[in-house]
């Protein structure tokens, strides 16, 4: 994986979203990390250490817990629409195996901030 785009906005550190499909992981299918795009406009999605996804081009943002996922394999396996997760366990797994921490420069401190934000989202 090459260097991933990143930026800071309003004191939030964002990295281009590069994860395996959490829906495939939940359903026990192998999934390799890939770049994710905003389905509404096709632009690159970013993940912030505040626990939100963000489309830099259109400004759309949403908490990770509210996001829905779909990849080509999901479509092949009968999902017609993007699917929400019932818990964030598989998002955590996707982040852990994504290589984002090692390959993007995000680092463990960034991952810890994302994890804490996810915990807060789940508790709300």
The largest β sheet comes out as: 5 strands, antiparallel
Q: Between the first and last Cα atoms, what is the distance in angstroms? A: 35 Å
Low-pLDDT regions = none
Number of individual domains:
1
Helix content: 25-40%
* Quaternary organisation: single chain
User: What's the number of extended β-strand segments?
Assistant: 9
Q: Number of DSSP helices?
A: 5
Kindly state the mean pLDDT as a whole number?
Answer: 82
The Rg value, from CA coordinates, equals 14 Å
- SSE topology string: EEEHEEEEEHEHHH
Strand content: 15-25%
Tell me, what's the shape?
A: globular
Keywords:
9 strands; 5 helices; globular
Briefly, what is this?
The chain has 124 residues and is an alpha+beta fold.
Report on this model:
- The chain has 124 residues and is an alpha+beta fold.
- The protein has one domain (6-123).
- Helices cover 32% and strands 23% of the residues.
- It is built from 5 helices and 9 strands, in the order E-E-E-H-E-E-E-E-E-H-E-H-H-H.
- It has helices at 22-26, 72-76, 89-97, 100-103, 107-123; strands at 6-9, 12-16, 18-19, 34-35, 45-48, 52-55, 61-63, 68-69, 83-84.
- The strands form 3 sheets. It has a 5-stranded antiparallel beta sheet.
- Strand 5 and strand 6 (52-55) form a beta hairpin.
- The radius of gyration is 14 Å and the shape is globular.
- The model has no long low-confidence stretch (mean pLDDT 82).
